[in-house]
């Protein structure tokens, strides 16, 4: 075994959400992990010994970003302009999504590649099938993005018991892993009851029970549309019509008189969940999210795509709710977006639309995402021991404007840096 050297990435600037901020900046990597970061002149001498330098003089280096909510198995459908309402869109997805293992696996891998190329280092995927999970876990090295794969489940009314049984069977066929190790390993398992208009409370409770047994992560779509609010409260409206049309309606589906968040509160109280969207919430609901320790994955571009406005992510964060970012599926991304599976475009959207604090956006896009996915927050930073996966954005090093502000204001592509094989002595593992 050769003596391990240190690789030092020198850049115009570095920044993370845990205090690394330097211009110029440097990140030192050994055995594929960060061992130091800061101003190039202040790195410890022991780090500089035996170091090789990689210069990125025009780049801001950030930790790789976290996409807490996406649907990799829909990637093959590509960006798709919205025609009609949400239920029309759902009908389209149900019909057009790949249903055989091979196209599912190809779609997942395409999504993983696009994610990696856009500087995403961890992601939470809603997997519509076990094929989507195995496709991710067995992806070639260039397409590995670690994180969570949430097996999606459906079933309302009298169908719930058989759905739970089917989920248990599917899980028993999937090798269980409770943790990801470094950057070479794939995804841990989660459960993703789809949404209140497709999935009953018994399934949510069963997901809680299963998660306690085996530490499955948990995620669902909640409070996404006004039609969903109407369905949960009154059991009527467009979703009731859709269920009847699909032959999935029965008399056990009844009004609850509640908003989806208080409706799900008994479940949220007993396990940690990530809720995708939460486009329609009142103050009381934010309180429930806060006291149950629930995370929210906000997908700004997807929310806009469906016409939802005034998302309360800043109120949620102020109230102590962990809010992270997601893309949702590629269908909701603009056709002219060069990095449709990227999280940086989501940050740019919020920066430009809401003038959200750049430091807060970086936190939402990195450590908050890790917290939501239940991984170490440090793993999405430039701090010691973080895996050496970074995202670089070209900036103007002579412009006195803050580098992160520059990166959010410009349209330069994100380039990924995978240094997990750097600092191993021979450049290989
Ligand atoms: Zn989704």
Describe the 3D structure:
- The chain has 429 residues and is of the alpha/beta class.
- It has two domains: 6-62 and 382-418, Urease, subunit C, domain 1; 65-356, Alpha-Beta Barrel (TIM Barrel).
- Helix content is 34%, strand content 22%.
- The protein is built from 16 helices and 15 strands.
- The chain has helices spanning 45-48, 86-96, 101-117, 130-137, 160-173, 201-214, 226-234, 238-245, 260-268, 283-291, 300-305, 313-318, 344-354, 358-365, 367-373, 403-409; strands at residues 6-15, 21-22, 25-30, 33-38, 51-63, 65-70, 120-127, 147-153, 187-193, 217-222, 274-277, 295-298, 322-325, 389-394, 414-418.
- The strands form two sheets. The chain has an eight-stranded parallel beta sheet with strand order 6-7-8-9-10-11-12-13, sandwiched between helices. Strands 1, 2, 3, 4, 5, 14 and 15 form a seven-stranded mixed beta sheet that branches.
- Helix 3 crosses helix 4, helix 5 runs parallel beside helix 6 (201-214) and helix 13 runs antiparallel to helix 14.
- It starts with 5 loop residues before the first strand and ends in an 11-residue tail after the last strand.
- Zinc ion (ZN) is lined by residues 69, 71, 126, 221, 276, 328.
Give the SSE map.
Elements: E1 6-15, E2 21-22, E3 25-30, E4 33-38, H1 45-48, E5 51-63, E6 65-70, H2 86-96, H3 101-117, E7 120-127, H4 130-137, E8 147-153, H5 160-173, E9 187-193, H6 201-214, E10 217-222, H7 226-234, H8 238-245, H9 260-268, E11 274-277, H10 283-291, E12 295-298, H11 300-305, H12 313-318, E13 322-325, H13 344-354, H14 358-365, H15 367-373, E14 389-394, H16 403-409, E15 414-418
Parallel strand pairs: 1-5, 6-7, 7-8, 8-9, 9-10, 10-11, 11-12, 12-13
Antiparallel strand pairs: 1-2, 1-3, 3-4, 5-14, 14-15
Helix pairs in contact: 3-4, 5-6, 13-14
The structure holds zinc ion (ZN).
């Amino acid at each position: 075994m050769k003596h391990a050297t240190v690789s030092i990435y020198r850049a115009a600037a570095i920044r993370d959400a845990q205090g690394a901020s330097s211009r110029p900046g440097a990140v030192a990597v050994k055995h594929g992990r960060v061992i130091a970061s800061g101003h190039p002149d202040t790195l410890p001498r022991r780090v500089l010994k035996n170091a090789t330098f990689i210069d990125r003089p025009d780049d801001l280096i950030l930790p790789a970003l976290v996409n807490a909510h996406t649907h990799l198995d829909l990637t093959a459908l590509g960006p798709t302009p919205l025609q009609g309402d949400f239920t029309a869109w759902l009908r389209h997805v149900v019909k057009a999504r790949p249903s055989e293992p091979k196209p599912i696996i190809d779609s997942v891998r395409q999504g993983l590649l696009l994610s990696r190329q856009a500087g995403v280092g961890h992601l939470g995927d809603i997997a519509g099938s076990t094929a989507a999970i195995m496709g991710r876990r067995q992806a070639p090295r260039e397409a590995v993005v670690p994180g969570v794969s949430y097996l999606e489940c459906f079933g309302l009314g009298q169908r719930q018991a058989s759905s739970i049984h089917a989920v248990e069977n599917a899980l028993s066929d999937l090798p269980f892993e409770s943790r990801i190790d470094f950057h070479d390993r794939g995804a841990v398992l989660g459960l993703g009851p789809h949404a209140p208009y497709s999935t009953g409370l018994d399934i949510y409770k069963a997901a809680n029970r299963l998660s306690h047994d085996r530490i499955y992560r948990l995620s669902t779509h909640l409070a996404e549309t006004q039609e969903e609010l109407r369905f949960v409260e009154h059991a009527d409206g467009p979703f009731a019509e859709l269920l009847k049309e699909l032959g999935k309606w029965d008399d056990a589906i009844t009004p609850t008189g509640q908003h989806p968040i208080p409706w799900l509160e008994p479940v949220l109280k007993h396990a940690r969940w990530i809720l995708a969207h939460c486009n329609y919430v009142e103050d009381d609901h934010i309180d429930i999210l806060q006291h149950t320790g629930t995370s929210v994955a906000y997908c700004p571009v997807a929310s806009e795509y469906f016409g939802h406005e005034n998302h309360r992510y800043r109120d949620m964060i102020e109230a102590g709710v962990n809010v992270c970012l997601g893309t949702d599926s590629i269908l909701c991304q603009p056709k002219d977006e060069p990095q449709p599976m990227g999280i940086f475009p989501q940050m740019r959207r919020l920066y430009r639309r809401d003038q959200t604090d750049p430091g807060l956006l970086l936190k939402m896009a990195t450590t908050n995402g890790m917290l939501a996915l239940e991984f170490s927050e440090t793993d999405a930073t430039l701090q010691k021991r973080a895996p050496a996966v970074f995202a670089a954005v070209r900036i103007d090093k002579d412009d006195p404007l803050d580098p992160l502000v520059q990166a959010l204001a410009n349209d330069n592509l994100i380039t990924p840096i995978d240094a997990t094989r750097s600092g191993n002595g021979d450049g290989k593992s």
